[in-house]
Write a structure and sequence with these properties.
- This protein has about 300 residues and is mainly beta.
- It folds into three domains: about 80 residues, Beta Barrel (Thrombin, subunit H), CATH 2.40.10; about 100 residues, Beta Barrel (Thrombin, subunit H); about 90 residues, Pdz3 Domain, CATH 2.30.42.10.
- The protein is built from five helices and 22 strands.
- The chain has a seven-stranded antiparallel β-sheet with strand order 2-1-5-6-7-4-3.
- A hairpin with a 7-residue loop joins strand 13 and strand 14.
- It is globular and about 60 Å long.
Length: about 300
């Protein structure tokens, strides 16, 4: 469906208003009771209002109930029941070379529900984004050559079986045939909680950490084969004043091996604030286990 930050976003590609002003984008219905998954940069952050147009032409005002800037994902609720919703696939099982389809509203709503096809070009991609002199990094992305234009943001990347394996998010404008999607597995448990209870308390471990794919952007002198690199510990967060230190490498959580930030997120999102987890870390040649009580984000 189409999503806009304005009630009347206009219909024409000739409109003088651009995507960033209107928040034009796409979303995918993920529950029968009105939860819609999209990008945060399309819908706005938590508590924002946006306007949803379904395939049948019905319009709704939606409220963003959950969002995560680092993931560029959001869940918006509309007052609707018995909706047809998407089947979520398993993004951990995707393979390079597999056929995928991107669905969205490129350029404007008059081209709504455009489908483009391509393949999975790569997995676990990390990219640097520079906006208004600010640098940020997105990691663990699915790279595809399926055509993704600005209005496709928030739309699904699907398999030939119709299963959603990712949410389209950004396109490298300086190169042709390079688009990216956020793997669906990272948000599955959040969707499940909202569907069943209408609420979700997001736990946090209180660190900024990076995959080995991101480290070359930050520090070419850091090398490690497995795990994730602790770049910063949040002051007064769950790991502050614990044995965990900056520059540690987290190898596993509760015995589950970590190699990407999404490995950590997927596991943490199955927990609740107040739960205890055990981190196995490496610090040079030293290896140790550290108990952490999860906080609330």
């Amino acid at each position: 469906m189409g999503i806009s930050k304005l009630k009347n976003a206009g219909n024409s590609i000739l409109s003088i208003s651009n995507e960033s002003e209107l928040g034009l984008g796409t979303g995918v219905i993920v529950t029968e009771n009105g939860y819609i998954l999209s990008n945060e940069h399309v819908t706005g952050s938590k508590y924002s209002k946006c306007y949803i147009t379904l395939e049948n032409g019905q319009n709704y005002e939606g409220t963003v109930e959950w969002s995560d800037q680092d993931l560029d994902l959001s869940l918006t609720k509309i007052n609707a029941k018995n909706l047809n919703y998407a089947t979520l696939g398993d993004s951990s099982k995707i393979r390079v070379g597999e056929t995928v389809y991107a669905i969205g509203n490129p350029i404007g709503f008059e081209f709504r529900r455009t489908v483009t096809s391509g393949i999975i070009s790569a997995k676990n991609r990390s990219i640097k984004i520079e906006e208004e002199n600010n640098k940020s990094y997105m990691s663990d992305l699915i790279q595809t050559d399926a055509t993704i234009n600005p209005g496709n943001s928030g739309g699904p990347l699907i398999t030939p079986k119709g299963e959603v394996i990712g949410i389209n998010t950004v396109k490298i404008t300086t190169a042709e045939g390079i688009g990216f999607a956020i793997p669906i597995n990272v948000v599955k448990n959040i969707i499940k909680n909202y569907e069943e209870t209408g609420n979700y308390e997001q736990p946090t471990i209180g660190i900024y950490a990076y995959d080995k794919q991101v480290i070359p952007y930050l520090d070419g002198n850091v090398n490690f084969e497995k795990g994730i690199y602790v770049a910063q510990i949040t002051p007064n967060g769950p790991t502050d004043k614990t044995e965990l230190k900056e520059k540690d490498i987290i190898l596993s959580i509760d015995g589950n091996e970590l190699n990407t930030m999404n490995d950590l997120r997927e596991y943490i999102y199955t927990k609740k604030p107040g739960d205890e987890v055990i981190l196995e870390i490496a610090r040079g040649k030293i290896s140790k286990k550290i108990n952490i009580i999860l906080g609330k984000k």
